[in-house]
Amino acid sequence: MFVHDLTPITALGGATPQVETVGTVTLSENPGLALASVMARVGFETDCAKHLADLLDGDAPGPGKCRLHDPEAAFWLGPDQWMVGAPYDTHETLASDLKTRFGNTASITEQSDAWVCYDLRGAGMETVMELCCNLNIRAMQTGDAQRTSIHHLGCFVLRRDPEDWVRILGPRSSAGSLHHALKTAMVSAELL
């Protein structure tokens, strides 16, 4: 019999999440997010959206929007498709729980280990984001969600509350590259 002493690590390979501050902006690696994608099955679009609305205590988010709800939140991925997130500590089985809730109305896919999550906060956050991507970050409001490219990586940017906070989801396999791009932009923004 094999005995494995496995130690969980973050997307950046550490035992604890990395947190870095440059000037007024703080970049935090956030490994505490459970994620699952929800895609309505053909003929069940209305039922699927109703299940999601019940889960979020409000309408399912439409194009370019996210629904910030505690503990579950969701953002729009495409027609009849959403990403649902919740704290990992209390929702480790999020995908399985959603499969039970949605039944045959949706296809649910576990996404927690596919994405890295960074929270970027502070008064200079908008300047940093302007250096990273082509989003009109100053026009985004709390509850807006956009897909963009950061350092040639497809990412989602969610405008959180308070207004000086964005959550960035990028491919976990490129966590280091995305972190480097964000940190470089933070340093550059401080020099402006």
Short characterization:
The chain has 192 residues and is of the alpha+beta class. The protein is 24% helix and 34% strand.
Keywords:
Gyrase A, domain 2, 6-stranded antiparallel β-sheet, single chain, 2 domains, 5-stranded antiparallel β-sheet, 192 residues, alpha+beta, 24% helix, 11 strands, Alpha-Beta Plaits, 4 helices
Can you offer a commentary on this structure?
This is Sarcosine oxidase subunit gamma. This protein is of the alpha+beta class. It folds into 2 domains: 19-31 and 114-191, Probable tRNA modification gtpase trme, domain 1 (Gyrase A, domain 2); 33-112, Alpha-Beta Plaits, CATH 3.30.70.1520. Helix content is 24%, strand content 34%. The protein has 4 helices and 11 strands; from the N terminus they run E-E-E-H-E-E-E-H-E-E-H-E-E-E-H. It has helices at residues 45-56, 94-102, 125-132, 175-191, and strands at 19-22, 25-29, 33-40, 66-67, 73-78, 81-87, 106-110, 115-122, 145-150, 153-159, 165-171. Strands 1-2-8-11-10-9 form a 6-stranded antiparallel sheet, covered by helices on one side. Strands 4-5-6-3-7 form a 5-stranded antiparallel sheet, covered by helices on one side. Strand 1 and strand 2 form a beta hairpin. Helix 3 packs across helix 4. The model has no long low-confidence stretch (mean pLDDT 96).
